[in-house]
Design goal:
Elements lengths: L3 H17 L10 E9 L7 H15 L4 E4 L14 E8 L1 H18 L17 E5 L19 E7 L4 H11 L9
Antiparallel strand pairs: 1-3, 1-5, 2-3, 4-5
Length: about 180
């Protein structure tokens, strides 16, 4: 089976050019990066939670995550500027395409009661965000090794100019969207 990047270059991009009426291949939308994010409010009290979340992200992506820090102090949340509040990984290039392939063909089918992704996860600029309630859907995570179930957010950043182009790009790549219900 050819990898997802070859599939995009040989079939998806030319199909988008023909379908959307672009003049050349470079105008076709493409996935530019994937950002995985785990927000940890509990990291303020428990520093080991941050280490565990970073370990989970590293296993899933094969890349070392960075710590995200608070930009502002918020007294109601007992949050000070600069405190660690989560971790994230940005994937580009070959790792991004490999992760997207694994996400579509291995991880999403493992989600319990999965009936397709809602097409409402677009932001108006062609980028799609989906959330996981726990990290167990990823086969790289061993149930016995985790200390707590943590949610995760995955953002697929595309070069599409609007949601219609972004949805069409991801659909042609094989992302399992559910049908819109009127």
């Amino acid at each position: 089976m050819p990898n997802l990047l070859d599939f995009y270059n040989e079939e998806v991009a030319p199909g988008l050019v023909k379908e959307m009426g672009f003049r050349n291949l470079m105008q076709a939308p493409r996935v530019s990066k994937i950002v995985l994010n785990i927000g940890l409010g509990e990291a303020l009290d428990n520093s080991k939670a941050l280490d565990a979340a970073m370990s989970d992200l590293a296993k899933v992506t094969g890349q070392q995550p960075v710590i995200t820090r608070a930009r502002k102090s918020v007294a109601n949340f007992k949050l000070r500027e600069g405190q660690a509040v989560g971790s994230k990984v940005t994937l580009r290039g070959v790792r991004m395409w490999d992760f997207l392939d694994r996400l579509m063909h291995i991880t999403l089918p493992r989600v319990r009661d999965f009936r397709g992704l809602p097409p409402t996860g677009f932001d108006g600029r062609g980028n799609f965000t989906l959330g996981f309630q726990d990290q167990l859907a990823f086969p790289e995570i061993d149930y016995d090794d985790i200390d707590k179930l943590r949610g995760m957010e995955i953002t697929l950043v595309t070069t599409a100019v609007d949601d219609v182009q972004g949805l069409r790009l991801l659909t042609l790549l094989g992302m399992p969207f559910r049908e819109k219900v009127n």
